[in-house]
Design brief:
two-stranded parallel ribbon, disordered N terminus, binds ligand L4P3G6V5, 2-enoyl-CoA Hydratase, Chain A, domain 1, alpha/beta, single chain
Length: 328
């Protein structure tokens, strides 16, 4: 398995003077995460880049944490946009291959990396804006909930066919674990309660509901929705293009990315000490609770996932996923 081996400064731009980019890569050289930073604006962009679905493996979790820490260590940066290089999938949640027939040494490490991702993201001194361009099921939804603000794509008319044949692309978001025969861990479930309130969360967790954007907005799972139609006369916002990594340059006129950029800019202008202190007012107790039960949570997770019945469910689920993908 790959291990994250570098978080490297790749380029220093002379254009804006204080903009640079780096990537956090696995041993095979793939950039799992691409980071760009604009010190003048005080904002950064962290683009998840693990094809095909930005699923969260041990290495991916570590790469996101490493990149976030790199950004946090720069005192000029106050906010960050969390985005995906895949326009149709924000993150498909945990990499299911981590759960199926797991190696006994790797499984607790994997779970620890997810716990750490939660602690780093939810407790970050940076204001994190999730630009949710596509699907965000299960731990993909968790990632978004650990941010400070969520903007979701309203869905789009896909490029398949024309006229009446046009196919609507509707992304969904939610903790759908029960549909997979597993349960979200307590801290993830509680994050949903904190985000959408007790009754809505109770129902959504039991049913494993995946919400389309309008429903997600109406229950407060996301803060805003935005079309992704790039208008012919789209305005270009100064600074966004430079912040986008080269693989996502075409997103500069995307209204969703523009909205995320504006929100990140707004966050960056708030006095940082006050913003961070107020963030801790609402988040610190949840973080402390999670740290206090961390080892117990890991033991519970490993015990649960390795049960024969759970493994059977997961194997069937992965097979169904693969055959669906093959049929396309
Ligand atoms: C203490 C309690 C203990 C128990 C705790 C359990 C842990 C609970 C916490 C979190 C659970 C999870 O996150 S489990 C993962 C859940 N995720 C899903 O169920 C999503 C599955 N994927 C999809 O539904 C779809 O892929 C999609 C809606 C995200 C996108 O659909 P689309 O049609 O665009 O793409 P494809 O389905 O064709 O997929 C493309 C490609 O990606 C691979 N893929 C997708 N999801 C995953 C994944 N989660 N892990 C690994 N790989 C994934 C899929 O197989 C395709 O690959 P190939 O083209 O190579 O076949």
């Amino acid at each position: 398995m790959n291990t994250v081996i570098r978080s490297q400064l790749l380029r220093f731009s002379v254009g804006r003077g204080q903009q640079f980019r780096f990537s956090t890569a696995a041993a095979n050289g793939n950039d799992l995460v691409i980071g760009t930073v604009d010190e003048t604006l005080g904002i950064a962009m962290l683009t998840m880049n693990r094809p095909p679905a930005n699923s969260l493996s041990l290495e991916m979790n570590e790469a996101i944490c490493t990149s976030l820490k790199t950004m946090e260590s720069n005192p000029k940066i106050q906010s960050v946009i969390l985005s995906s290089s895949n326009p149709k999938i924000f993150s498909a949640g945990l990499d299911v291959s981590e759960l199926v027939s797991p190696h006994p040494d790797r499984l607790p490490k994997f779970w620890n990396s997810l716990q750490q991702l939660y602690l780093d993201l939810y407790g970050s001194r940076l204001a994190v804006v999730a630009a949710i361009q596509g699907h965000a099921p299960a731990a993909g939804c968790f990632l978004a909930m650990a941010c400070d603000y969520r903007i979701m794509s309203s869905g789009d008319i896909g490029g398949e066919g024309g006229g009446d044949m046009k196919k609507r692309f509707v992304p969904t978001i939610g903790l759908n674990e029960t549909q997979l025969g597993i349960a979200a861990p307590p801290w993830m479930g509680q994050l949903l309660v904190r985000t959408i309130g007790f009754r809505q969360a109770e129902l959504a967790l039991a049913m494993g509901t995946l919400f389309p954007p309008d429903r997600a907005l109406s229950i407060g799972l996301v803060d805003a929705i935005e079309s992704e139609q790039h208008g012919a006369e789209s305005t270009i916002i100064e600074g966004l293009s430079e912040l986008l990594p080269s693989i996502s340059k075409d997103q500069a006129s995307n209204p969703l990315m523009q909205k995320a950029f504006k929100q990140a800019t707004t966050f960056a202008k708030i006095p940082p000490h006050a913003r961070v202190a107020s963030k801790l007012v609402t988040r610190q107790s949840h973080i402390h609770d999670m740290i206090a039960t961390r080892d117990e949570d890991t033991a519970h997770f490993c015990g649960f996932v390795t049960q024969e019945a759970v493994q059977k469910n997961l194997i069937a689920y992965v097979e169904a996923m693969k055959s669906k993908s093959k049929k396309k």
